[in-house]
């Protein structure tokens, strides 16, 4: 029972991060039909920018409180990622809007390589220790189940951010314009919507979520690295497909479900394979799920739209 | 805008439009004066829809110029033309099927910030289209074709257009519904909105319009008052006979 509850906690934490990143994939897909494979690397840029800011702050104001330091580093990392998201749309994807579907997809992979290489040039090839500004000393709400304050922060912050996003998209005039543009660019423009602005904004919002997810991810594991965005990016993409790509609620659900499956998988894989595989094989679960969803339910758990684009 | 009220609201000169390597509109001239209801009739593929789309800014011109309120607008994107007062009800209605009826209508007022006036305009649309009011919370994709057309027209009106472009509002609808829609179109025209109507149902269009242009394979071949064209033997043979058969 302790193992079960422990894996539930771990799954929720990882799942929240996947969900935040998956939202970025699914929003861009919803509005452009594009899988932005560079989205995962924004997670990395967010984490490393925050790390850089923390290092700087520790140098100039060593007495600063951890919460202030974390807040300031987020206030740098989020705009940097937003600007990057804006730039990739403006310079790369906008020109390819009417191109065959494969062109923007390949471009996205190219942008991903570009970001990773630039990050490697700036921050080097080494793994960096990421300061864990929120305590990682576990508490035991139930005997034998360990929860750290950073984990609690991640889950609560993600829930608040996702609720805010849902409100933005469903209740505001801007959100209505985003949904209208996602459904039909041409008619949205006929309603007076500057669709280019809405599309750019979609990238920018997704990038902000990725930056936050990056800081969460690095804070949780205590490590940052130029290639750290690849795996959570791929997992989040899987989560978006699992939930039904293009569907916001689906991305959230898919993220949490994927986190849980992975976590339970990792917890029980030894028993399941009679000791043949151990928990370091946990990544296989995400991709088994991706395969199964694509074969048996390509529209995902909540998606009603068949993905007819690459 | 300090333009002469007697100068045309909309003037197309030498307009050519090409897409996909095909020249769909091959140099047309067309004028609309304030308060007019003018129709553009012609067979399928004559270039009528293309012309409307180009006026609204959905399509670029290959050659020629569009003057609106005396200003060149051909380089303005669609969303800026709407803000100048040009609204298009597109062919096939262009309803946002996943948005509710009310959200669709409010999209029409997207460019406006006068909240109180938007609410009163919404009320006016509801009185004009009572069947819509019962379905405000419904997802628009579940409406019938006629209801969708009503929503599309109501949505366009919520932008408070000076020039309303209607693309085949009768398409695919039952005669009774078409009648209702044309009643609405007429009441909008009476309020002083200038209307350019594209119709395949030439009989209906000519009956309602003050003037009309006849388009054939990308060119305007005839123009005149609605009444004149209704009795024009050429028009009767080419369009009205055909339409009567089809109905």
Describe this structure in words.
The complex is a heterodimer of chains A (310) and B (247). In chain A, strands 1-4 form a two-stranded antiparallel ribbon. Chain A has a two-stranded antiparallel ribbon with strand order 2-3. With 310 residues, chain A is mainly alpha-helical. Chain A is globular and about 60 Å long. Mean pLDDT of chain A is 93; it is low at 306-310. Chain A contains eleven helices and four strands. Helices cover 72% and strands 4% of the residues of chain A. Chain B has helices spanning 48-56, 78-84, 101-108, 115-128, 130-133, 145-157, 175-190, 202-208, 226-231, 233-246, and strands spanning 10-19, 22-32, 37-42, 63-68, 71-72, 86-89, 163-167, 194-199, 211-216, 219-225. In chain B, helix 3 packs parallel to helix 6 (145-157).
The proportion of residues in beta strands of chain B is 25-35%
Order of H and E elements of chain A: HHHHEEEHHHHEHHH
Physical arrangement of strands within the biggest beta sheet of chain B: 6-7-8-3-9-10
Largest sheet of chain B: 6 strands, mixed
Radius of gyration of chain A: 19 Å
User: Given the C-alpha coordinates, what overall shape of chain B results?
Assistant: globular
Relative helix content of chain A: over 70%
What's the CATH class label of chain A? Answer: Mainly Alpha
Which secondary-structure class do the elements of chain B indicate? alpha/beta
Q: Tell me what portion of residues of chain A adopts beta-strand conformation.
A: under 5%
Approximate helicity band of chain B: 25-40%
Largest interface, C-beta within 8 A: A-B, 17 and 24 residues
Q: What separation lies between the terminal Cα atoms of chain B?
A: 45 Å
